[in-house]
Amino acid sequence: MWEVLLLAVVISSISPSQGLYQVTSKENYTSYGNTENKDLSNSSFDEILDKCRQENPSSSRRTLTLCLRSHGVTAWEERRERRAVERNGKANCGKRYKLMAGAKRTFQVKGNENFCKVFFEPRGKAELQLVCRKFDLSNCDEEYLEVTDQDSKEKYCNNEGPDTRKGLRKVRLTYKKVSEVSDKPNILCVVKGVKASGGGGSSGVTQAPGCDQVCGKAPSSAGAPRIVGGQASQPGEYPWMVRLTIIVGASSILCGGSIITSLHIITAAHCFIYDSTPEVIVVAGEHNIETEDESNTQAISAKKITLHPKFDATTAANDIAVITLQSPLEWTDNVGPICLPPDKTFGGSEAVITGWGLLDSQESTFPDELQEAGVTVFDQGECKSAHALSNFPVTNKQICAADPGQIACKGDSGGPLVTKENGIWLLLGVTSFGPGDCTTDVPGVYTRVSAYSKWILNKVSSGSC
């Protein structure tokens, strides 16, 4: 089994006058994994149903029923839990609602409730949309609202409620009061059944609001030749490229990322697997990190970091994250968004990787200028075969790319794998992992962005272009 290294680089600052580069190893990467196998014997119907749906995502009603029976759910319990009222009105705590297109229910907490949980799912060809119109709670130690959909589970408190979410296959809203609070909670959220759009992760391509006319634009010089080892890019060639400085205690970690909206960056989840919450500074428009030219760069701190809820550090599965910025980026010749891709394999396509990662893993040489390298996207079967003996097996939610002498290396984590189609640049992948010595005997592996389009669009709904 050959060694796999995640491609983030840790710069440990021993003192202000001394520093050294430490490459994140497999051992400290995998130590944060969660391989919990949940016992469902005391679980609620909702939890058992979720588990059965995950195990049988495309199965028939009969298969789903058999799974429920195997976990101890009786036919009477199933019929009782599946009953749903589709009238418009207030959603009652402890109830389950199925909403067809045009139906809606209001989740409201403004009294003395200590706990309220409501589950929603669509009926027929509908999907769900969540909009919170009022949100005012105390801090998370006292009370919170938990929002669970098919892709994520997040807690909200204070006066920062959830953004609008669309394209949902299920929604669970849970309010919980942890301790006594002086002010009453004030939550008003509406869950609507709407006609399924089919966008995000399907054959069609949906961009963030207002971004389809401005994303994926770059100078004609963008695109890397097949030069072994890559080369320095030209300033402004890849306006979606950002550099992430991730500060954890006395250490600083280098990762890359891609601009999706003026408020959101796509990067790798493994850049943030630390015991404490890091400080993250996003720099856009940068080319030479040693040149003090602030007129071309924009440095903004991260407001929120959202890891994919199913990210697994032990396998690098679902290695993707969304950064929400404290203030919006301004579009310039050097700063602009990349487009999300259609749901295609792109096998055999010519693509480009960019980053400030190591030029030579043996010599620990980092470049000053943003580097570019031309690579070829592997056929998915070849991709899986190349990593069959690795400790990070490849799935259909990942994509491989490399060429002789051309591969991402340590420090390139989170950066983009892009290709140009019909004159528009598309974000195919997020740099995830590769061979420890950064050779091209096996290809580098990237998180396949098209597999997460719907999740991304839900997380960036507050942004625009």
Topology record:
Layout: E1 4-6, E2 9-15, E3 18-23, H1 26-30, H2 45-55, H3 61-70, H4 75-82, E4 89-90, E5 96-99, E6 104-109, E7 115-122, E8 126-136, E9 143-149, E10 153-156, E11 165-168, E12 171-177, E13 186-195, E14 231-232, E15 241-248, E16 251-261, E17 264-267, E18 279-284, E19 298-307, E20 321-325, E21 350-355, E22 371-377, H5 380-386, E23 398-402, E24 416-421, E25 424-435, E26 444-448, H6 453-459
Parallel strand pairs: 4-6, 5-7
Antiparallel strand pairs: 1-25, 2-3, 2-16, 6-13, 7-12, 8-11, 8-13, 9-10, 9-12, 14-22, 15-16, 15-18, 16-17, 17-20, 18-19, 19-20, 21-22, 21-24, 22-23, 23-26, 24-25, 25-26
Give your account of this protein's structure.
With 465 residues, the chain is mainly β. It has three domains: 45-76, no CATH class; 89-195, Spermadhesin, CUB domain (Jelly Rolls, Sandwich), CATH 2.60.120.290; 231-460, Thrombin, subunit H, CATH 2.40.10. The protein starts with a strand and ends in a 6-residue tail after the last helix. Residues 11-41 and 198-204 have low confidence and may be disordered. The strands form four sheets. It has a six-stranded antiparallel barrel. The radius of gyration is 23 Å and the shape is globular. It has helices spanning 26-30, 45-55, 61-70, 75-82, 380-386, 453-459; strands at residues 4-6, 9-15, 18-23, 89-90, 96-99, 104-109, 115-122, 126-136, 143-149, 153-156, 165-168, 171-177, 186-195, 231-232, 241-248, 251-261, 264-267, 279-284, 298-307, 321-325, 350-355, 371-377, 398-402, 416-421, 424-435, 444-448. The chain is built from six helices and 26 strands. Helices cover 10% and strands 36% of the residues.
